[in-house]
Specification:
The structure is a single chain. The longest helix is centred in the N-terminal third of the chain and has 27 residues, at 71-97. By secondary structure, the chain is of the alpha/beta class. The strands form 2 sheets. A 7-stranded mixed sheet has the order 1-9-8-2-5-3-4, sandwiched between helices. A two-stranded antiparallel sheet has the order 6-7. Helix content is 53%, strand content 16%.
Length: 312
């Protein structure tokens, strides 16, 4: 196959996948929150019974990260994790369709948001660390509906899907910044203007863009972006996550000031602090964390570690 034909094939495949994704989201998007969560719960139970790779990944992560719990306790958390994962998967469709009023209607409480508003009112930027807890899509939309927000994201492997992701996450006014040099510059400008920048801090960065630091006692490739933003601005740092309440009663969004030195002079110490902050949030409701993510499969290269020691 020639290079031209190969490129045309990938473009056609991308458009096909984008069309299929839009069709599925459009269909599921009209579900009520209760219906979406019931369907998602069923998918999660099916994943548990099927004993496939998703369940194995969850069980492996829990065994690594929560060794202080008994096998029976971890089994309960693993089963609940798959159910919560299923809910999150299906409810994304209606959440991405909702407007600001719909999103506001399902938020029972914004716990601690006044501290973020006070920081912004004082002219400080805010770095919001939003781990993969609860419904992070709704959390981002709800935050952007209230304050000027830039959301950093990792572009999907399929370029055609990036447009869908950007459109969905920008529905309530967020400015989107890809996780590259241009996106970092955009985030820095937002923080210096006294705006909020939201980041999913528990994604493993690409090789050369992170260092290894403990996460629940396990070596994990960890981003250094938070440290960079903290050191180059006077921004206040917070964690934030949208807790999914039982029986489709809505969501409670938690905002809390960061207590760990995520902008530490030493890159390794800063990365370890970031992971400790995420751990603290995860322990609040471990079954709502994305344990399906294979966080420990990659580590930083020796070259990357040397470069980080020389940084700053």
């Amino acid at each position: 196959m020639s290079k031209r034909r190969d490129t045309a094939w990938y473009r056609w495949r991308g458009r096909l996948r984008l069309g299929a994704a839009r069709a599925v989201l459009a269909g599921l998007g009209w579900l009520s929150l209760g219906a979406a969560q019931r369907l998602g719960s069923g998918l999660g139970r099916l994943a548990w019974v099927a004993r496939g790779s998703m369940r194995r990944t969850v069980e492996d992560n829990l065994a690594r990260c929560l060794p202080e719990t008994s096998a029976a306790e971890r089994e309960v958390i693993a089963r609940r994790t798959l159910i919560e994962t299923g809910k999150g998967l299906i409810e994304t469709a209606p959440v991405w369709r909702w407007g600001p009023a719909d999103i506001e209607a399902v938020i029972v409480e914004r716990r601690g948001f006044d501290a973020i508003e006070q920081a912004l009112a004082a002219g400080r930027g805010v770095i919001l660390l939003a781990p993969h807890m609860g419904n992070w899509e709704l959390g981002g939309l709800a935050t952007a509906a209230r304050v000027p927000t830039t959301i950093m994201y990792r572009p999907p492997r399929e370029p055609a899907m990036e447009r869908l992701l950007v459109e969905a996450r920008a529905r309530t006014g967020a400015s989107m910044a890809p996780a590259n040099l241009g996106g970092v510059r955009k985030a820095l400008r937002g923080l210096k203007r006294g705006e909020l920048v939201a980041i999913l801090p528990d994604q493993a960065p690409r090789h050369g863009e992170g260092i290894t630091a403990p996460f629940f006692g396990q070596p994990a490739l960890t981003m250094t972006l938070i440290r960079t933003l903290s050191r180059r601005t006077d921004a206040a740092a917070f964690t934030g996550w949208a807790e999914r309440l039982p029986e489709a009663r809505g969501f409670r969004i938690h905002y809390e000031p960061v207590t760990e030195p995520v902008g530490h002079d030493d890159p390794t110490e800063a990365a370890a602090a970031l992971n400790r902050e995420i751990e603290r949030v995860v322990r609040e409701k471990p079954e709502q964390y994305q344990w399906t993510y294979r966080r420990f499969r990659r580590q930083a290269s020796g070259r990357a570690r040397r470069e980080q020691r020389q940084a700053d």
